[in-house]
UniProtKB/TrEMBL annotation, chains A, B:
It comes from Drosophila willistoni (Fruit fly). The keyword Repeat does not apply. It is found in: Cell membrane; Recycling endosome membrane. It is a multi-pass membrane protein. The gene is Dwil\GK18095. The keyword NAD does not apply. Residues 559-587, 685-714 are annotated as: Disordered. Residues 71-531 form the Cation/H+ exchanger transmembrane domain. Keywords: Antiport, Cell membrane, Endosome, Ion transport, Membrane, Sodium, Sodium transport, Transmembrane, Transmembrane helix, Transport. Pfam families: Na_H_Exchanger (PF00999). It comes from the Eukaryota. This is Sodium/hydrogen exchanger. GO terms for biological process: regulation of intracellular pH; sodium ion import across plasma membrane. Gene3D superfamilies: 6.10.140.1330. GO terms for molecular function: potassium:proton antiporter activity; sodium:proton antiporter activity.
């Protein structure tokens, strides 16, 4: 402790790019110009700053090239229809390769640190260590005369705690700040998930999605936490001692959220059954939000509420209330900002200038994230619900140009962010200095992850199936289980905290689980879909046509609208021996009209009856919201009909008039509805005003460059004709196959 | 020096947002989780980290709201056709207001620093101060038992030199890193400038543009440097002593580049004469590049080459060679990367997947910047020429979707970056701690800036007018002088270095010049255009039609193609009393057919003769390049005809075949040319293959949301018909007014 230590640590090149990532974005301008009185030290500092900048640029460049390479290879794979490896898997593999190269080839740059103490007699009056240290350093002047000014003062800013003073390996400069994930990478991904959500199918399956996401994730987290804690007792001493129940619970929370990316890309390519798609997407979008809040609550429990680390009721309750209040307040802020943007775009004519409009849209969406973070809520959750509201309301008010532009921009951002994070998962396996391999823990983690997923899917499906007659079939359950890939959120949560051995082991296990599930499960999804006889090649469109045809189109605005009977075209693919779930239904569940998987056709009428009964029993909440949405929210926030003048009681007429635009009053009744792909929050709100054609896609993942609204120009009779025509054709097809 | 100093500095709230800006992007995760053994200090640190994060988010939020407000007000102004204040001016004004509020209202947070010295006996073996300091700090345990582990080690990272140890005001945490401008804000602006450049008019006026940009900027820099240095001797002692000639020269270099933004927005709105537009745009795009390299060379001179600070021939020559080598190597890298992207998009079918294609495009463009920075060149310059190449070659290979998308993305990025920087200029006037007001210097700077602009415009115009018969009219010269607004680049260069009083005074002067020129000159541009009788309301289109009609359309591929005679429709606006310069001509200059400004009409035939003579005399270099481009570059890099098979000598056939795509061979001859708005690098390359209609706009600033290629479907006869029709109409108009 007495001897001064000025050790030269090696900053391995594989760690450089992480520095680059942190600092490359905000390059620290170390350039200290001294006019002409440059000293040796100044010149050396200057040279070092230049070198740092170069290295940062170079590392970032390697990474950008890696992404470009990924893009090219993805194209090649798509071009040659390679289905056994998907783009995220590819990004991970490239990341692994580059990480290995970075690790095992390359020189090192020295990184010097020095132990210091306060000048003179230290008086510590504060609880906190100082924000900056000022350090006097003797400087070698170029002109050899050593002046008294040869001492310069340098400033050092607080970085964090050094946990392992003895361990030379720890390299503060190379610790990639995991907050980047939460503040840069995740928000666009999550926002896009919300913005591109196909709300129709999402709300149809709302019950199941909410059950899986909220109950399932929590259940899974606690189960994994418990089992891991039990197993930890069997692990090496150094691990088990540092592994508290809170730690394992945290692990449970972080490993529970599923990542939709790979699996949905496959589903999309194969046009898999839309309800299965909605279940997987909806669940994984929501369980990301649940997991981040849950893990935050667990952290809080450990840090603020619990004194002993053991179970305490009050601390537990406070954490629970944290969980719910943070989740719902974040939701509220996100939704409010989305609605505010809708109001802005509705009551200004900013849509005349698409560039301004798009800029406004982007700025408002980003400010939602910031607002939530500034109020100590969860920005990621807020941004998700902001995205949903933007798609549901604001999107309707945007000009055609802005619709395209915002969709495309967020699609691209999402693509880049996703591939970045998966590449980084690969690279970090080799370069992140705080990995800790422990075979026992990793194996347990793998088993627990599968177990957690199973406990999420099977019992809850069973529960849902008890409550509702049309069941989620066993094959669908298997697929749901199998679709439980882990991804960005798990990794981001795991890398956020790598202080202890236990946490480092968790990071390693999480990385491996992500890599395994993305590459192996993602690759096998295709085969499994086949093997489980999940219907693929389903056209979103036919289902919609189906809806149009079957239920009455002129429902009044009260709740008496007819539920659709969807059994009608139930087995358009039946001849190909696929099971088929009926699309549409106000109820939030899947039904399996076919018990035997192969080739059998269910009775359309029966399916229809099921629906009719269930829609009234089950989806009351959803229907109430749907009506409220149609009557008040949409007229207020968009240019849709009916206007508030019609839906509000007479006494509110002046206000209603104020909130109704001329456009709303003068439009021909369909113009602004038509483009809203997701206006049917509960299937049929659209039919309230007579049939308006729905545009598939909307700001959807597949809708990227396609002209939205292929049927924009169709009149009602056209649609009916077309529907009849297609229905006839299809019944012909099914007849042929029977 | 002996007493320990732990002073609490106040970090004024107006400085907070700058912290937010730096760290908000990459949030430093200070969260140090300690499991359950949390100490007072840990909890306090945690709370402080949370608070910091909240404040950062809040500050950034204020800024995002500011931008959103700007967007809304811009809309309002556009909506009500307010022309006396433009969006950049607006951003500056809002910035000023918010800056003032931040400064004069708000509480303060304490920022603690401590003077430290090496532990034990210091041994300084290195030239450089250590990268990190490790500092032991006694920690208050929550459980009152003071353990020996109650001492924790915290790490501090190197930040920079403290220049004013005595001055309490200096607040390192609040120094906004100016490198952000060079690495985040400027690249998208500059790239977009290159990408959206209307190359046709740019290359037509290449001679004048290059003269103004390279010669003019250098001249202006040296003149301003000299005059300022002279005047500095009359200034207060503390300033004049710290103001070396290099400093004033640096000031000259940074204040010389003009910013096209405001003025071009106005030109765009009014559809001002395209050649004037091209001159202003081209010059300001290039002089940004010249200025950044020039100022770098001046810095290098001071730091590395000169020992005394006085003039040294070798040092000067080395700086000059720096200047040229950095400029041209950057240009080369940018162009090479652009061409590489063109090759990638040509020889892969990545265009089948627009999202991948757009991602590739963005990644390659960004990697150009990184590559240049990694090789110690100037990223900004590289990115400019990359943008030009991307627009000239790659754009042709992109799918329609990617064209739209890339245009729109960069347009939006550009818009946000520009408004951000102008808002920041306003805000920083109040919040940046290193402003230094000195009335004398500021007034001198204003005068010098005007002088520098004058010396750029008038003598060079005179020189150009000597060399070439068709002159740049006096009114155009006045407008060019007046269009010399200063903007982003000047500010970014000024804020990069604020070490000395002199530099701080420069920053203040630059900020004020930018604010003044943007608000006052920008606002007055409209009136001046009127007053100087500059033609407005010129349709890009008519000029093109004019070109089509007049010159022969079936020129062979040799150089014998006919230059256009553009005098034909020379005064379509003549009746409204505007001067008119003839559009088109291979020569890189403007002509002024009308000497008296009002209502006179020039003789079309004379104009035409001028052109015919001059195009052969003047633009040989441009024509050689144009031919080379059409014969080799375009066939190699795009799908254009003629193919390399036709243009390369026979011996190279195998290679030529390899480099020619099937698409190129099988296309119907016009498909891929049509969309290339800028293929006429020297007016008429297009006519080589017969008449292909040109799409105005391309990735142009005004082309944002418009469907590119309104005349895509027109056949040659259509165009000729249309042309004749319009020509007839126009001659009618002119006849009526004569």
């Amino acid at each position: 402790m007495a001897a001064s230590s000025s050790k030269a640590h090696t900053c391995r090149p594989q760690e450089r790019w992480k520095i680059a990532l942190i600092t490359g974005v905000v390059l620290i301008g170390l350039i200290c110009h001294q006019g002409c009185e440059a000293t040796d030290t100044d010149i050396a500092l200057d040279a070092k700053a230049t070198l740092n900048h170069r290295i940062q640029s170079l590392d970032l460049l390697v990474f950008v090239f890696l992404l470009a390479l990924t893009v090219l290879t993805i194209w090649l794979f798509k071009h040659h229809r390679v289905s056994w490896l998907h783009e995220t898997g590819l990004a991970v593999i490239y990341g692994l390769i580059v990480g290995a190269i970075m690790r095992y080839a390359g020189s090192s740059t020295p990184l010097v640190h020095m132990q210091v103490e306060p000048e003179g007699n230290p008086t510590y009056t504060d609880k906190l260590p100082p924000d900056t240290l000022w350090f006097k350093y003797p400087v070698n002047q170029t002109n050899t005369t050593k002046l008294p000014e040869g001492i310069k003062t340098y400033a050092y800013v607080f970085r964090g705690q050094v946990h392992d003073v003895d361990e030379n390996e720890i390299d503060l400069k190379a610790t990639f700040d995991p907050e980047v994930f939460f503040n840069i990478i995740l928000p666009p991904i999550i926002f896009y998930a919300g913005y591109s959500l196909k709300k129709k199918y999402f709300f149809r399956n709302l019950g199941a999605i909410l059950t899986f996401a909220i109950v399932g994730t929590t259940l899974s987290a606690f189960l994994i936490g418990g089992v891991m804690y039990g197993c930890a007792k069997l692990m090496p001493k150094y691990l088990s001692s540092s592994l508290s129940f809170l730690d394992t619970l945290y692990f449970g929370a972080l490993i529970s959220p599923t990542d939709p990316l790979t699996i949905l890309a496959i589903f999309n390519d194969l046009r898999v059954d839309v309800n299965l798609y909605a279940l997987v997407l909806g669940e994984s979008v929501l369980n990301d939000a649940v997991a981040i809040v849950l893990s935050g609550a667990i952290q809080n429990y450990g840090e603020h509420y619990s004194n002993t680390g053991e179970f305490e009721t009050t601390a537990f309750l406070r954490s629970m209330s944290d969980f719910f209040s943070i989740f719902f307040l974040s939701l509220l802020i996100g939704a409010a900002m989305g609605c505010f943007t809708a109001l802005l775009t509705k009551f200004t004519r900013v849509r005349d200038f698409p560039l301004l409009e798009s800029a406004l849209f982007v700025l408002m969406s980003y400010s939602t994230f910031l607002l939530a973070e500034a109020t100590e809520l969860t920005g990621v959750v807020a941004v998700l619900f902001c995205g949903i509201c933007q798609a549901h309301y604001t999107y309707n008010n945007l000009s055609e140009d802005s619709r395209q532009r915002t969709k495309q921009i967020f699609e691209l951002l999402n693509f880049l962010a996703e591939n970045f994070i998966f590449s980084y998962i690969g690279v970090s396996m080799f370069t992140f200095p705080k990995h800790h391999f422990d075979a026992g823990f990793i194996i347990t983690a793998f088993i627990c992850a599968a177990l957690g997923r199973a406990v999420n899917v099977y019992p809850l499906s069973w529960l849902l199936n008890i409550k509702r007659k049309p069941k989620i079939s066993t094959n669908f359950q298997h697929m749901l289980f199998f679709a439980g890939l882990r991804g960005a959120m798990s990794f981001a949560l795991a890398i956020r905290n790598t202080v202890s051995d236990a946490r480092q082991t968790m990071l390693t296990a999480t990385s491996l689980i992500v890599i395994f599930t993305v590459i192996i499960q993602g690759g096998a999804a295709n085969f499994l879909l086949n093997w489980l006889n999940i219907p693929v090649g389903v056209d979103d469109e036919t289902e919609q046509l189906n809806n149009y045809q079957v239920h009455s189109v002129y429902n009044s605005m009260d709740n008496s609208h007819q539920p659709p009977s969807d059994g009608y075209l139930q087995d358009m693919e039946g001849g190909r021996g696929k099971t088929r779930i009926s699309g549409g239904g106000t109820d939030g569940i899947l039904d399996t009209p076919i018990e035997g998987a192969n080739g059998s056709l269910s009775n359309g009428a029966t399916g229809s009856h099921h629906h009719r009964r269930n829609s009234h029993e089950k989806a009351i909440l959803a229907r109430i919201w749907g009506n409220f949405d149609t009557k008040f929210m949409k007229p207020l926030l968009t240019h849709s009909r009916p206007t508030l003048l019609e839906t509000l009681p007479n006494c509110c007429n002046p206000i209603a008039r104020l909130l109704t635009t001329t456009q709303q009053l003068t439009q021909d009744g369909g113009e602004f509805r038509r483009v809203d792909s997701d206006s049917d929050i509960c299937i049929d709100n659209d039919s309230v005003n007579g049939l308006t054609s729905q545009t598939p896609g909307g700001p959807g993942p597949a809708g990227g460059g396609q002209a939205p609204g292929r049927r924009n120009s169709l009149s009602r009779s056209n649609i009916l004709n077309e529907t009849n025509h297609i229905a006839n054709e299809l019944s012909l097809v099914t007849n042929n196959f029977m």
